[in-house]
Amino acid sequence: MSDLQTLRTNTLAAVQAASTLESLDEVRVSALGKKGAITALMKTMGKMEPEARKAFGQEANLVKDEIASALDQRKIELEEAALDEQLAREIVDVTQPARPTAKGSIHPISQVMDEAIAIFGEMGFAVAEGPEIETDKYCFDDLNIPTDHPARQMQDTFYMHGHSGDAGSLVLRTHTSPVQVRTMLIQEPPIRIICPGRTFRSDYDATHTPMFHQIEGLVIDETAHMGHLKGVLMDFLAAYFEVDEVKIQLRPSYFPFTEPSAEVDIGYEVVNGELKIGQGDKWMEILGCGMVNSRVLENCGIDSSKYQGFAFGMGVERLSMLKYGMPDLRPYFDSDVRWLRHYAFDPLLIPSMVRGLHA
């Protein structure tokens, strides 16, 4: 027994003397390890008498538990001391100025949409929005698009899972025109709105992507005519491209939801390799427009004998490419930080017809 008590006293002293977790672990191994002192003493029990073996075993277990408890307590003390030392070493001076952080920026698509909203807002247009998942009724039927029209085929339109073009099918809207339908169904004329938003078509190349953005406009009243439409578009394009005036031409075209319909070309010229929008002897298609088809008005519950109106639609990406010089549409959606840093806009400079459209 004397050897066991001597081991207890020496080991407890060594535990308290340990100043690091490494030295404490060495004490644990020397006392309680497979080749430790207590293990060696307990191997001598086989040579003892039964009564002496029982008493020695009980005493050895008590010493072993006491040493293990002392080791655990000392480990907690050393860990807390190490943490206090680390916190003291890594103290933060809150009086120091903060490190500069990277400021977020506005994507060109968002910038152009904000610019268009600012321009049309000055003309008295309100912003209308609608769901991106639409029924084919709002997306096609009410817009006078027949069931056999190519735009309704699955190679052009994204139908939702389980829908294949049957009545009541759900689609990812192919244009923002359903927002016009929804507005006409719930709002009495006069109506003057623009509909910015995302649209979806099955197409992908340098100038087309499966997801893109449009801004469409709608005016419904008793006196609207093609002259008003042309004036609105000329004023918008001049303000957007920040030129005094623009030269445009309306080419006859066909859209199921407008009659008559027209493609709008804008004049441009190339000077020293730079594209100049507004004047020149060259023409570039930029948007589509027309007078709202009377069938569309009737589908939306508007008396076509009393009211008439015009509509137009343009691609946001195309507008931004022309104004800010992006040659390819696909990088818009690549999330390339370098591209974003080059083309992005200051988030604090909100487009305004008073302050300016951009920095």
Keywords summarizing the entry:
elongated, BirA Bifunctional Protein, domain 2, two-stranded antiparallel sheet, 2 domains, alpha+beta
Topology summary:
Blueprint: H1 2-17, H2 21-32, H3 37-42, H4 50-89, H5 108-122, E1 126-127, E2 133-135, H6 136-139, E3 170-172, H7 177-186, E4 191-200, E5 211-221, H8 226-240, E6 248-255, E7 258-271, E8 274-277, E9 282-292, H9 294-299, E10 308-315, H10 316-324, H11 337-343
Parallel strand pairs: 1-4
Antiparallel strand pairs: 2-3, 4-5, 5-10, 6-7, 7-8, 7-9, 9-10
Helix pairs in contact: 1-2, 1-4, 2-4, 5-10
Number of helices: 11
Report the top-level CATH class of the largest domain.
Answer: Alpha Beta
The tally of structural domains comes to: 2
Total E-strand runs? 10
Proportion of residues in β-strands: 15-25%
Task: Report the average pLDDT across residues.
Answer: 86
Low-confidence stretches: none
**What's the gyration radius in Å?**
39 Å
The CATH superfamily name of the largest domain is Bira Bifunctional Protein, Domain 2
Shape: elongated
Largest sheet: 8 strands, mixed
